[in-house]
């Protein structure tokens, strides 16, 4: 297997003394897992941040072997990770994607939508702007993997109604997509929803 493509880095799990296993989402190849040597070194630490846009090369010699990867930074989300709301939004979107999509199945619409969501989180004037994009991404993901027919949130939906929608969608995600690992992944969503509730009606 050989993949060379732009990708969204969705998760990074330390492995061994110096490496990490990453999960990346590409438009044409879907979600892929690979080992990155030297992941905890000075050069790669700022590259291997969930939410970053990267160029990735994934190689595997045998079907039973975990592929290896080389990565190059295209766009960093690092500057926004010091802000509580953007960091929670990026963390949840990436964790959800990494935990729920099957590997090797292309979802080009989800790829483009996740890029748009991450851009919105980083550049919208407030969380009130990107929370609706996040709700739409969740609806799309549920639909793409066969667990939903709900419409996207309307553009004029009031803030309390949008929060209520996110609460409902969270239950669907936990029950349908993450039934065997709810605590691990939904914790990131609980942090996000808690912070969204605190911004108030005038955010």
UniProtKB/TrEMBL annotation:
Stored InterPro entries = DNA_rep/recomb_RecO_N, NA-bd_OB-fold, RecO
Q: What's the superkingdom here?
A: Bacteria
Q: Name one GO biological process term.
A: DNA repair
Q: Please give the organism.
A: Novosphingobium subterraneum
The protein's name in its UniProt record: Recombinational DNA repair protein (RecF pathway)-like protein
Which parts of the sequence belong to the DNA replication/recombination mediator RecO N-terminal domain? 1-75
Q: Which residues cross the membrane?
A: none
């Amino acid at each position: 297997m050989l993949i060379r493509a732009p990708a969204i880095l969705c998760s990074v799990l330390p492995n061994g003394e110096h490496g990490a296993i990453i999960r990346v989402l590409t438009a044409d190849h879907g979600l892929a897992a690979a080992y990155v040597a030297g992941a905890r070194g000075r050069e790669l630490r700022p590259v291997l941040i969930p939410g970053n846009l990267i160029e990735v090369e994934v190689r595997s010699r045998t079907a039973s072997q975990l592929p290896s990867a080389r990565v190059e930074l295209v766009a960093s989300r690092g500057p926004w990770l010091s802000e509580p709301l953007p960091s929670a939004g990026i963390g949840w979107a990436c964790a959800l994607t990494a935990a729920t999509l099957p590997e090797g199945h292309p979802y080009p619409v989800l790829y483009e939508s996740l890029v748009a969501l991450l851009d919105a989180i980083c550049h919208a004037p407030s969380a009130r702007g990107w929370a609706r994009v996040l709700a739409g991404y969740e609806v799309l993901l549920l639909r793409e993997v066969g667990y939903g027919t709900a419409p996207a949130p309307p553009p004029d939906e009031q803030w309390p109604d949008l929060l209520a929608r996110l609460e409902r969608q969270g239950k669907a995600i936990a029950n349908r997509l993450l039934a065997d690992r709810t605590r691990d992944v939904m914790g990131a969503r609980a942090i996000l929803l808690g912070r969204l509730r605190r911004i108030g009606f005038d955010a």
